[in-house]
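Format notes (please read before filing issues)

Several people have asked whether sequences and C-alpha cells are stored in separate files. They are not. Every record keeps both together, in the order shown below: the sequence lines, then the C-alpha cell lines. Line labels are part of the format and must not be stripped during preprocessing.
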Amino acid sequence: MHIPDGYLSPQMYVPLYAVSGCVLAVALKKVKNEVSTKEVPYLAMAAAFSFLIQMFNIPVPGGTAGHAVGAGIVALLLGPWTAVLAVSIVLIVQALVFGDGGITALGANCFNMGIVMPFVSYWTFKIIKGKRSGTKIVNIASFLAGYLGLCVASLFAAVEFGIQPMIAHSADGRPLYAPYPLSIAVPAMALEHFLFFGIAEGLVTALLFSYILKHQSAPSCAVKGGIA
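Then the structure lines:
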C-alpha cells in the first residue's frame, strides 16, 4: 500500500501533506502530555515492530505482494495517537532512507496507514468489545480491528488512485498520473486487501494482543486508552 512517486497529482498529495502534518503535530503534543518517560521505550518498540513486520511481503496471484502494517496492534496497546506517531515515523524513514514509498506521496501514505488505520482499528475494537469481557470477544474484536483497519486504509488509497484521471489530465483527456479510474482501482485494491493482506493483519493483531494480555505485559497507557 506504499504509494510511489508519480501516482498522485499535486492536487492530491499537497492537501494530504497538510492534513497529515497537522495530525502528526497533534499526535506529538498528545503523546508528550499522555505518555510518561518510562513508557517512551514502548513507543520505540512499536515503531520497530511496525518497521519489521512491513518487511515480510505476502505474494498474491497476479505478480504483486503486500504486507501487514502493525498499526492495529500498536493502537490497541498504546492508543491511536501513539500509533499515529510510531507508524508515521516508520513511513518517513522508509521513504527517505529505503525508497519504500514516494517522497511526494509521503503525506498520503502517512494519512492512509499512519492515521486512518490506527483510528479505524481502535474504534472497531472498542465498538465490538464494548463493556463485554472474555477471551472470545477480545479475540474477535482484535482480529476485526486489524482486518478492518488495513482494509479501510486500502480503500482510501484506492480512491486516491481512482480519482486521478478526473482531477489531473491533459487537454485531450489523457491521465497524467495514475491512469485507472475508480471502477478499476477500488476493486483491485479491495480484492487483495480484503482477501489476503487484511486477514494477515487481523491474525497478527489478534495473536499478539491475546499473548500480551495473557502475560500482563501491556503498558499502562493501554489501560488509559480504555482497551485493556
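For reference, the curators noted about this record: Strands lie at 58-60, 64-66. The two ends are 29 Å apart (CA to CA).
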